[in-house]
């Protein structure tokens, strides 16, 4: 039987030419492809009240938390920075509840980009609300736009022997589309990799079955980067 992996959705918050005010919940297809190609069954979880987290986690074997809006600073005790972009407090609250419930049920969690950030916040960590203005050691372009999303652009510096060992090439390049990042890691998380300027790129906690990366392996699938699918495979192997 295939392992079922819950992928909490994003949602369209604004009227747009295609859907008007007929708002939609969605997940980019590349996340689905990464999970499916790893031999698991993706299950999309529409945004709901935090109280629904238990029922959702009950029906899946693991979670993959994906990219999207900024995380609201209310969840790590700060006022909104001038450079804070769009937030979705309902999504934040739901995903935090999912993370905590998955840990309670001892089910693995894999965070990607915003997913890494929301895991850190859910467990008591903090974020840089805006790297360019708050992280003074910045020397790497962490939002590579307008470079294509499937093109890797910067290196990793591995900090520990981790689940990434043997999955990621030590000289691998990754892509980068973020202006927020983990600042203080929550207790129990191990720093696995940074960018060359020290920004958190990966962490994990094997005891709680938590794994997270700041880059976008699902986008790299389109560039046929071998480590991209290998990450999804390695996570599914943890279930």
Automatic annotation (TrEMBL):
It comes from the Bacteria. Gene3D superfamilies: 3.40.50.880. Pfam families: Peptidase_C26 (PF07722). PROSITE patterns: GATASE_TYPE_1. The lineage of its organism: Bacteria, Bacillati, Bacillota, Bacilli, Lactobacillales. This is Gamma-glutamyl-gamma-aminobutyrate hydrolase family protein. Keywords: Hydrolase. The keyword Hydrolase applies. InterPro entries: Class_I_gatase-like (IPR029062), Peptidase_C26 (IPR011697), PuuD-like (IPR044668).
